[in-house]
Specification:
The structure holds two protein chains of two kinds. Chain A is an alpha/beta fold. In chain A, the strands form six sheets. In chain A, strands 1, 2, 3, 4, 5, 6 and 19 form a seven-stranded mixed beta sheet that branches. In chain A, strands 8-15-9-10-11 form a five-stranded parallel beta sheet. Chain A is globular. The two termini of chain A are 14 Å apart. The mean pLDDT of chain A is 92. By secondary structure, chain B is of the alpha/beta class. Chain B has two domains: 190 residues, FAD/NAD(P)-binding domain (3-Layer(bba) Sandwich), CATH 3.50.50.60; 154 residues, D-Amino Acid Oxidase, Chain A, domain 2 (2-Layer Sandwich), CATH 3.30.9. Helix content of chain B is 29%, strand content 25%. Chain B has ten helices and 18 strands. In chain B, helix 2 crosses helix 9. The radius of gyration of chain B is 21 Å and the shape is elongated. The chains are: A alpha/beta, B alpha/beta. Chains A and B meet through helix 11, strand 22 and helix 14 of A and helix 5, helix 8 and strand 16 of B. Strand 22 of chain A pairs antiparallel with strand 16 of chain B. The structure holds flavin-adenine dinucleotide (FAD) (2 copies). The site of one flavin-adenine dinucleotide has 37 residues of chain A, from helix 1, strand 2, strand 4, strand 7 and helix 3.
Chain lengths: 468, 403
């Protein structure tokens, strides 16, 4: 099956929904391809509407924004302006543009559709950034966002007693969500320190909504007596066969464990780690868009004030332009959708002030919550870095020191790190750091090699055989 | 021989740290020569990192290439025996499968010829084929088993040979593109090549070896000689990890026809093989489109159709990745190996097309013997650079590339 439209949107999270609505309302014929079975993306993920037709938005922020966008989305769909294609993953975007798709859930999933469009708005979001630590490959260790997604999608918890660790404000909603769903959070361990915020307060105060959110979380933490420990990390996940506890330590400003501060939490079911997010760049990169390093060390797509990338006709919105939260994703989506609908309006657009404010806020957040410079010190040579291919930190150090592998590309060749099922989505950032060497952060070139995945999603060989 | 003049100088300067340059540096160092290796990137950043690691006897015709292949196999098995583990050397064996009466007939003809010149090949009837590869298509009529076919991990070969060469005294400098040649000014063409020029300064050398794969023509042109090495694109597809389903390297009989062909159009014949990590590699297309890096859905479709024809179970398996590389080939499908009499001091080892991994070991050893002033174990005349004559380098290669 195939569909031809003016504007094709990839993703139906905050950015994609907003882009689709803006483009349709500006008069374009729009198709929306999303791997999810219903709109919402990561942020507004909710129980299947087939089961709960009227979700009340419990545990969600910005739910009224969602309801508004959703109503406009549904209306545009009814009016035939939006073709909504859920349950499909884009595995390749061809220049020109054609999106090739495959069922997100095989084998009985949606029927693949090829979407041809004059312009693309890519809003594929991101995923949790992970850093390895001894024991992180035990069952029971999850990405913090994975825990949240589990709760949002199932309305149930993946365990009873939780440790949440990493850095960034995102640890708060995860812990709050667990507590509200009836789980026990033994501690939230934040590697950074609240005083790190002080220099950035001005930027933060530009986005009052965030302060409000923060206050809500503080109330939840107080109500459930969740300990929030700053300058603290998990140094090891303990357990035989599965996670049963964690060893923790206090750290200095670089993230180096301070001697004598070790402590053990026992009887833990689930350990959730979150070190910020990695934008999902394979589609933009495969189309050749220019990228840059963002303040959080992630590779992101470069856009102009109309959200257009360096490739004419390819617009980007949401996490792929820089991790900045759902509110910013919506603003960018609206701008991108409107611009993609009327690419030739030619009028130079002044970037909405709200986007600028939110970007400044995101920047401040990244600077206050860096990946600790000394994180590589936490590893032992036998710590697994690439779980798919069972590559250890020692293997990577050896490849760097003996074979001169300094970037992700040669590390992959020499050690197979990032060659497995997940194609380096989990270990890519960590491997790039290890390739750069102790205390070093990877450069854009190395991260670009890691983001390069010519198949943006696995695709059946039977389906490929039908291509001509 | 000692040309090492000054701190930067050496007897031999190797340009390019792909498998061919790495092997040349390694064997030259073994000969006791002082060696410098320069690459514009890291080791194995060219075609050697975008290929498969097959060392094949089964696809060679009678002639100098087969001779070089067998010599090379001997080097892999003997000279390099102690290092086999470093590059995951595996004597896995290849099987060629025929699914049509006509291809079975030509396979039988090829086998008879190959047996005649000593290739270890055994005929497989339908039952024997099933036993060797239980998941092969029901359509398969029969095949041929080549026990000598083996494989290595090419990136590890290049990286470790460079490392071993440096342990034997060679020097490797990454991130150093060669931009020109030093000449001694004598003679009508600027004289003898006496070293190379780079952004990091000049590197004098007694002999300069051009091991730059698909870039070899460009480098030769800098020295004013023609070496028509052209790119032939190939896509390879990789599946999700599976329990062992494919036990040998399995090719379709038409593979042999494609390898020697000069046709510019898209061709593919399946080479399906399992890897130690459980993924299955499906190779590879051949097409002449210059250095075009755009992903071709036509190529992916063709690979998928051919692979599922051999192994129908693949239809339900997912591909997780694909990659492509550019085989360095010469119009006569023979590599260029040896001293370039047109530019004294300049040597070449390039243009090994779809067999450079397998041929690298032998190429390096033979060239090192010649560089050390010895008579090589095998006559290099069929590979001589001067066979391309004095024609102006640029024009000829452009025409070929767009053919
Ligand atoms: C697990 C997780 C939990 C989060 N929880 C919070 C939170 O509690 N609070 C907070 O402030 N922020 C949270 N964030 C961050 C927040 O989700 C983002 O800021 C926001 O969702 C960004 O919106 P987006 O539209 O860019 O991406 P997303 O919401 O991630 O939407 C992207 C959509 O694109 C789809 N997609 C991606 N690739 C393809 C493809 N190739 N083909 C088809 N579809 C594709 C995805 O399935 C998804 O539906 C979370 C992020 C993650 C990853
Ligand atoms: C899809 C595919 C599958 C293949 N499968 C096989 C197989 O199974 N078996 C087999 O034997 N062969 C196979 N081949 C062929 C094989 O990969 C090549 O023949 C071989 O890699 C060539 O090696 P090389 O060292 O000559 O070139 P390269 O590996 O390309 O090395 C050339 C080096 O020169 C460097 N360089 C270039 N210009 C300069 C400069 N100006 N200054 C400094 N350095 C420079 C480059 O950076 C590069 O590192 C395959 C090829 C492809 C594309």
């Amino acid at each position: 099956m195939s569909v031809t439209v003016d504007v094709a949107v990839v993703g139906a999270g905050p950015a994609g929904l907003a882009a689709a609505v803006a483009a349709a309302e500006a008069g374009a014929r729009v198709a929306v391809v999303d791997a999810g079975n219903q709109p919402g993306g990561q942020f507004w993920r909710h129980a299947p509407e087939t089961v709960r037709p009227e979700p009340d938005g419990h545990g969600h922020h910005g739910w009224s924004t969602y309801l508004d966008l959703r109503a406009r989305f549904d209306a545009a769909q009814r009016a035939g302006r939006i073709t909504y294609l859920p349950g499909l993953q884009v595995w390749m975007a061809e220049p020109g543009f054609t999106l090739h798709t495959t069922a997100a859930v095989a084998p009985a999933g949606a029927v693949p559709v090829a979407v041809t469009a004059d312009r693309l708005v890519l809003c594929p979001g991101g995923y949790d950034r992970q850093l390895p630590v001894p024991g992180w490959d035990l069952p029971g260790v999850m990405a913090a966002g994975g825990i949240q997604a589990f709760i949002k999608a199932n309305g149930a918890l993946p365990g009873k007693r939780f440790i949440i660790a990493g850095t960034g404000p995102f640890l708060l909603p995860v812990a709050a969500g667990i507590a509200e769903a009836g789980g026990e959070v033994l501690a939230v361990l934040e590697s950074s320190s609240p005083s790190a915020w002080l220099p950035h307060l001005r930027a933060a105060s530009g986005v009052p909504g965030k302060a409000l959110e923060g206050a809500e979380y503080a109330a939840v933490f107080a109500r459930h007596r969740i300990p929030y420990r700053t300058r603290s990390i998990v140094t090891e996940v303990l357990g035989s066969g599965r996670a049963e506890g964690v060893r923790t330590a206090r750290v200095d400003a670089d993230g180096r464990a301070r001697p004598g501060t070790g402590r053990v939490y026992a009887d833990v079911d689930v350990v959730g780690f979150g070190w910020g997010f990695t934008p999902q760049l394979e589609l933009p990169v495969s189309l050749g868009v220019d990228t840059r390093l963002d303040a959080d060390g992630s590779l992101v797509g470069v856009v102009d004030e109309r959200q257009q990338s360096s490739v004419p006709g390819v617009y980007l919105a949401g996490e792929v332009t820089g991790v900045g939260g759902a509110a910013l994703a919506v603003l960018e989506g609206l701008a991108a959708g409107a611009a993609a609908a009327r690419p030739d309006s030619g009028v130079p657009v002044k970037q909405p002030a709200a986007i600028v404010r939110h970007r400044r806020f995101a920047q401040a957040m990244h600077q206050a919550h860096p990946v600790p410079a000394a994180w590589q010190d936490w590893l032992t040579p036998d710590t697994t870095v690439c779980r798919c291919e069972e590559v250890t930190a020692g293997d990577i150090t050896e490849a760097r020191e003996e074979l001169g592998a300094r970037d992700v590309r040669s590390l992959k060749s020499f050690t197979r790190a990032g060659m497995g099922w997940c194609q380096g989505r989990v270990c890519g950032f960590a491997a790039a750091c290890l390739g750069a060497g102790p205390g070093e952060a990877p450069d854009a070139g190395s991260l670009a090699a890691s983001a390069k995945r010519p198949l943006a999603a696995p695709v059946g060989i039977g389906e490929l055989a039908a291509l001509d | 021989m000692n040309f090492g003049n000054g701190p930067r100088g050496s007897d031999v300067l190797v340009i390019g740290a792909g498998v061919v340059g790495a092997a040349t540096a390694y064997f030259a160092a073994q000969q006791g020569l002082s060696v410098t290796v320069l690459d514009k990137g890291l080791p194995a950043s060219g075609t050697s990192s975008a290929c498969e690691g097959n060392i094949l006897v089964s696809d060679k015709e009678l002639g100098p290439e087969l001779e070089l292949t067998r010599y090379s196999l001997d080097v892999w098995h003997n000279d390099l025996a102690e290092h086999k583990k470093l590059w995951e050397f595996e004597s896995k064996g290849g099987i060629i499968v025929a699914s049509r009466e006509s291809s079975l007939a030509s396979l039988n003809r090829v086998m008879a010829v190959q047996k005649g010149f000593g290739v270890d090949v055994e005929e497989l009837d339908q039952a024997a084929l099933r036993e060797a590869e239980p998941h092969i298509s029901r359509e398969a009529l029969g095949g041929a088993s080549y026990r000598e076919d083996c494989q290595v991990q090419p990136m590890l070969v290049a990286a470790h040979l460079v490392r071993l060469a440096t342990e034997a005294g060679a020097r490797f400098i990454a991130g150093t593109p060669v931009t020109g040649f030093m000449r001694d000014g004598a003679g009508r063409d600027g004289g003898r090549v006496t070293g190379v020029r780079t952004p990091r300064g000049d590197f004098p050398a007694g002999a300069v070896v051009n091991c730059t794969g698909t870039w070899a023509g460009e480098l030769a042109a800098m020295a004013g000689v023609e070496v028509p090495v052209l790119p032939r694109r190939g896509f390879v597809m990789v599946t999700e990890p599976l329990p062992p389903m494919v036990h040998h390297k399995v090719y379709a009989a038409e593979y042999i026809d494609n390898v020697g062909s000069s046709d510019a159009g898209l061709q593919a014949s399946p080479v399906v093989e399992g890897t130690p990590s459980g993924t299955i590699l499906i190779g590879s297309t051949r097409e002449r489109v210059g250095f075009d890096r755009t992903v071709s859905t036509a190529a992916l479709g063709l690979l998928a159709r051919n692979a599922t024809a051999l192994f129908p179970f693949l239809e339900r398996v997912k591909a997780i990745r694909h990659y492509h590389g550019f085989r360095p080939y010469c119009p006569d499908h023979l590599p260029v190996i040896g001293h370039d009499d047109r530019a004294p001091g300049l040597w070449h080892a390039a243009g090994h097309e779809g067999a450079g991994i397998g041929l690298s070991a032998g190429t390096g050893k033979l060239l090192a013997q010649a560089l050390a002033g010895l008579t090589p174990d095998m006559d290099l005349t069929p590979f001589a650079p001067a066979r391309f004559g004095e024609a102006s380098p640029q024009t000829a290669s452009r025409e070929e590339a767009t053919a």
